[in-house]
Amino acid sequence: MKIKAAIVPSQGEPFQIAEVELEEPRVDEILVRMVGTGVCHSDIVFRDVFPASTSSVLGHEGAGIVEQVGKDVTSVKPGDHVVLSFNYCCHCNNCLKGRPYYCDKFMLMNYLGKRVDGSATLSMDGTSLHGSFHGQSSFATYALASEKNTVKVPDDVPLEILGPLGCGIQTGAGTVMNALKAPAGSTMAVFGMGTVGLSAVMAAKVVGCSTIIAVDINPERLKLAQVFGATHVLDSREVNPAIEIQGITGYGSDYAIEAAGNPGAYRQAVEGLNPTGTCILLGLSPLGTEVTFDMNLFVTGRTTKGILEGESIPHLFIPTMINMYKKGIFPFDKLMKFYPLEEINKAVEDSARGISIKPVIRF
């Protein structure tokens, strides 16, 4: 079928709107008419850093309405409202252990640009396109997905705001609630007040963290962090966050999250921990980016690791976030600014300039 999509002609180039061909859904696939899709930082990283052999259709925070399903699909039906998330195999050791976010085939199933069997879902003028991005490629009016990455959601919440729950918001909130399981009364420092960082701040408030310290260089975003629950804000251009965090908490934070992809911020996040604290790396950075630490920071019990997707199982955690939103304790919609597909390059530019926290393409 003919659809409209934002394509990346080649590495680093702006998006172009074009008519492309989308295959009909196979027996295990779901055709979704897109209503809204978030623009995520990793879309831009992939566009600018990872060369594809052909033009690409990106987008991986899609939300829409099921139009058609293959005969083997049982979990959704035409007319259902759905959110699309990451893809996984279901069969590797990590998937079988309930950790699909660390699927052995995560790279293959989300970034290969085609189905696992090597076939393409998208083409233009008879030439295959790099598609199936995160099992969806949702910068388009329609997308193909599978039951594994399609989450049915209630129809009493505006569908256009739900797409970012599939990645960015899930990553920030899931890190606090699923990966760290931060207990009430604990202390949390979050570096980088983009979508991921602000979602982490909101989640830290929900779980009852007693001290929530937001760190950024954008005063407006620091003000917003206070609205979402930060008890303290630090402008890292004016102070050393590690020293300030030690002073605010009296001993260092129990947890820290680096959501900016900045080596200096990552080092400060670790330095601001208490002797047995944990720092989580979420921010994406260019391949080859290095960071240095004083090795003695870790001999007392400090730990740090990177995680994916907030260690969230989308079919469980996306409904949880929606329920928190409906209760008024997780106002993630306040992060969003909407753009038509034709203005996707403006959405990307506004995000880079700090004008828009979470751009959402509204169809």
Overview of the molecule:
- With about 375 residues, this protein is α/β, with parallel strands linked by helices.
- The chain folds into two domains: about 1-165 and about 330-360, Quinone Oxidoreductase, Chain A, domain 1; about 170-310, Rossmann fold.
- Helices cover about 25% and strands about 25% of the residues.
- It is built from ten helices and 18 strands.
- It has helices at about 40-50, 95, 105-110, 170-180, 195-205, 220-230, 240-250, 265-270, 315-325, 345-350; strands at about 1-10, 15-20, 30-40, 55, 60-70, 80-85, 120-125, 125-130, 140-145, 150, 185-190, 210-215, 230-235, 255-260, 275-280, 305, 335-340, 360.
- The strands form three sheets. Strands 3, 5, 6, 9, 10, 17 and 18 form a seven-stranded mixed sheet that branches.
- Helix 4 runs parallel beside helix 5.
- The longest helix has 13 residues, at about 195-205.
- It is globular.
- The model has no long low-confidence stretch (mean pLDDT about 95).
